[in-house]
Write a structure and sequence with these properties.
The two termini are 19 Å apart. This protein is of the alpha+beta class. The strands form 3 sheets. Strands 10, 11, 12, 13, 14, 15, 16, 17, 18 and 19 form a 10-stranded mixed beta sheet that branches. Strands 1, 2, 3, 6, 7, 8 and 9 form a 7-stranded mixed beta sheet that branches. Helices cover 49% and strands 14% of the residues. The protein is globular, with a radius of gyration of 28 Å. The structure holds adenosine-5'-diphosphate and magnesium ion (MG). The site of magnesium ion (MG) has 3 residues, from loops.
């Protein structure tokens, strides 16, 4: 067997089986939860009452920190961090690369006596000046004016990152250009939350439910899927190292068809990893809740409890980082790519989203008819938003990695539709038909056609895994986002489009005839909305080809790949939508278009070049060695007049596969020259098919790359 594979298998096989002791004790959970967060409680103990009051006010109102208190807050933050072993601080931000960025500064500063003091001023806390020239800006910042600014977002608390012996104070920040344009994902996210809050407040006013003290809160619970493989196999797969996904690899006879991995007993080695991850997340105040085996072999999921959206997005970025770094400590590699392995499930990030006003969840059908009217209005707003702006939801999830997942056989399709479940669909149909029940006003309570919504048990609402956008009891679950993507993009779009819809509804309600019955008018409004947008509702199997045909008849967009999707982003009506909501300026939309398209093209090109390189320098040589052995054996047999019919057949097959591979490689090379990204994706697919066929016939001992049955099963 190829020594590299043999060695990897031997090392993994000789690892002592995981023992109970590998699972380090979690320790006291309640006491350590959030102990690495500069929390409200910590602030309260370390700050003067007056400063604490001012700070919490800016946190709650989402406004910038009063510079007058910055020095005191910074001093307290430094004292706290240093007492926990921190030597450095960093502004922690989310540039448009998809990752987080940090530049560490030591607290240490020399004093006049030749000694050092530990310093961290209010100015250090509030703004940082980052040389932004190497971050993508899509033309927002000319290179001669490379300065970018990071500004503290006090709504997301500072936290400590521990790595072996080093402790770093991380300050979540927004990242802007010198002229104030957002160079990151946090700024537009915060703006979109504001836009949605404004619209919800307007709707509340229209419903007569407005209360100046009540706040709107958007929530997110992000489920994170990932793969773990042993690092020995990883190092033997240049495609995983360079692209995060396998460019070749035949599907093994057994993969996920027995459905024996999903929710299966977690192996000790993996459980030790998961326990380690949970412990770190809890210290960071991240409410990691659920962990389990996912559908594909070697695939897993982690989900925290839902939190305020901005915080939840930051926390998801931290979760991805902790998963990656902790895997290394356990001799594993965590793959966050959307489709590391062909033929088995890819990884997504289910985005559970809801909106609250005070303690009312607008997506919760209550028993109270008043709340039901609000619920149905919100529901219809979401239906309208998703139908009108399905293109933007697709844009928000577009990436070279996610293209392999959306539209494949197991992920939600690239066509965006809404799953409501049977009961809710029935209610919607009743409203559309114009309920036979008279709308009534009992005891001043509104009643929208349906007397009372039946309680919708969460379990009954959704077991449809094929829908990209599903109502799940009291929230919507957007399943199209990819596992490696920041949740920010999806939620920026979701907030913006729902905000626009709610605004439209509120506007219509404001125009109701005060003399006429509110309820009848609301019913008519909902009825009209449903009639206009019900085409986006689909409760069937989203993987079925028949749905794609049906979706086409309904006129729903099917944006198959990133360039097709991204083209929608720059449409004038979409730019106008973002501008009106104050989420993106035209320049900010255009810059993101440039950046994401460039990223797409670069990633595809890297894959294509590596596919070509592996084909010519690893795969074809392995096949030709194999052929030489075969030819020698056939020749030797011939010398004693034995005709080796079977080996001749094998040799002929390998020879013709080699020719086919060479042809396909040339096509790919040609497309690389032409910079045809979409063409390259197709050509890589075609090349892969031949190589995978070759893998199925070449002697196992001659095959140079670890196979799927090893990558996915030996760990
Ligand atoms: P499933 O795998 O069945 O979709 P999980 O329990 O794995 O469900 O994840 C559901 C996610 O939705 C969790 O993060 C949970 O906290 C979150 N969630 C529950 N209620 C809400 C809500 N009202 N708003 C937003 N997220 C919610
Ligand atoms: Mg889910």
């Amino acid at each position: 067997m190829s020594s590299i594979r043999e060695d990897a298998i031997a090392v993994v096989a000789s690892m002592p089986p995981g023992r109970e002791e590998d699972i380090r004790p979690v320790g006291e959970i309640t006491g350590s939860f959030g102990s690495d967060v500069f929390s409200i409680e910590t602030m309260q103990t370390l700050l003067s009452a007056q400063t604490f009051k001012k700070l919490t006010k800016s946190i709650h109102d989402g406004i910038a920190l009063d510079p007058g208190i910055a020095n005191e807050v910074a001093a307290a933050m430094k004292e706290w961090a240093v007492s926990k072993g921190a030597t450095h601080y960093t502004h922690w931000f989310q540039p448009l690369t998809g990752a987080t960025a940090e530049k560490h500064e030591a607290f240490v500063e020399p004093d006049k006596t030749g000694h050092v003091i530990l310093k961290f001023s209010g100015k250090n806390l509030i703004v940082g000046e980052a040389d932004a020239s190497s971050f993508p800006s899509g033309g927002l910042r000319s290179t001669f004016e490379a300065r970018g600014y990071t500004a503290w977002d006090p709504t997301s608390p500072a936290f400590l990152r521990r790595n072996r012996d080093t402790v770093t104070l991380c300050i979540p920040t927004a990242f802007c250009s010198y002229t104030g344009e957002a160079l990151d994902k946090k700024t537009p996210l915060l703006r979109s939350i504001q836009a949605l809050s404004r619209s919800v407040t307007r709707l509340m006013k229209a419903f007569g439910l407005y209360d100046p003290k009540t706040r709107c809160r958007v929530s997110l619970g992000a489920e994170q899927e990932y793969f773990l493989i042993d690092r020995h196999f990883y190092y033997a797969r240049p495609d995983l190292i360079q692209c995060g996904r396998t460019l070749f690899g035949a599907t093994p006879p057994k993969h996920q068809q027995l459905e024996d991995h999903y929710y299966g007993a977690i192996r000790p080695r993996i459980l030790a990893f998961m326990a380690d991850v949970d412990r770190q997340l809890w210290r960071l105040g991240i409410p990691a809740k659920t962990r389990h085996n996912e559908a594909a072999p070697a695939q897993f999921e982690i989900a925290p409890l839902f939190e305020e959206l901005n915080l939840a997005v930051d926390h998801n970025m931290i979760i991805m980082e902790v998963l990656r770094l902790t895997a290394e400590e356990h001799g594993l590699v965590c793959l966050l790519h959307e489709k590391p392995f062909a033929g088995v499930n890819g990884s997504g990030k289910h985005n559970n989203w809801s909106v609250e006003y005070g303690n009312i969840n607008l997506l919760n059908p209550g028993n109270d008819p008043h709340q039901n009217a609000l619920f149905l209005t919100t529901l219809c707003s979401v239906i309208r938003a998703v139908d009108k702006h399905a293109d933007l939801l697709r844009v928000a999830t577009a990436s070279s990695g996610n293209d392999h997942r959306l539209g494949a056989c197991e992920a939600p399709p690239a066509v965006i539709s809404i799953f409501l479940g049977e009961q809710l669909t029935e209610i919607i149909e009743q409203i559309e038909a114009g309920s036979t029940k008279k709308s009534t006003r009992r005891g001043g309570i509104l009643n929208v056609g349906v007397d009372c919504l039946p309680p919708l048990p969460m379990d009954a609402t959704d077991r449809n895994r094929t829908s990209p956008f599903a109502f799940t009891g009291n929230k919507f679950e957007f399943r199209a986002p990819g596992s490696s993507q920041s949740c920010a993009s999806a939620n920026i779009v979701l907030n913006t489009i729902v905000s626009e819809s709610i605004d439209k509804m509120a506007e219509a309600i404001e125009k109701f005839d005060q003399e006429a019955d509110f309820n009848t008018q609301l019913q008519t409004l909902l009825q009209k909305t449903i009639k206009a947008h019900k085409r986006v509702i689909f409760n069937g199997n989203g993987y079925d080809q028949s749905w794609l045909d049906e979706a086409e008849r309904r006129g729903l967009p099917n944006l198959k790949n990133t360039p097709e999707a991204m083209a929608q982003f720059k449409k004038p009506e979409n730019i106008a939508l973002f501008e009106k909501a104050g989420v993106y300026s035209k320049a900010e939309v255009c810059s993101r278009y440039e950046i994401y398209m460039e990223e797409y093209e670069r990633k595809i090109r890297i894959e294509a070049e590596l596919a070509l390189l592996l084909t010519r320098t690893v795969i074809m040589p392995a096949a030709s060695m194999e052929l030489r052995n075969l030819f020698q054996t056939i020749k030797d047999a011939g010398s004693i007049k034995v005709a080796l019919r079977s080996l001749t057949k094998t040799a002929t097959t390998i020879a013709s596969l080699l020719d086919a591979i060479d042809d396909k490689a040339e096509v790919l090379e040609d497309l690389i020259g032409k910079k045809d990204s979409v063409g390259m994706v197709g050509a890589m697919q075609a090349l892969r098919k031949e190589v995978d066929d070759l893998e199925r016939i070449v002697a196992d001992s001659s095959w140079p790359l670890p196979k799927y049955r090893e990558l996915l099963f030996i760990y």
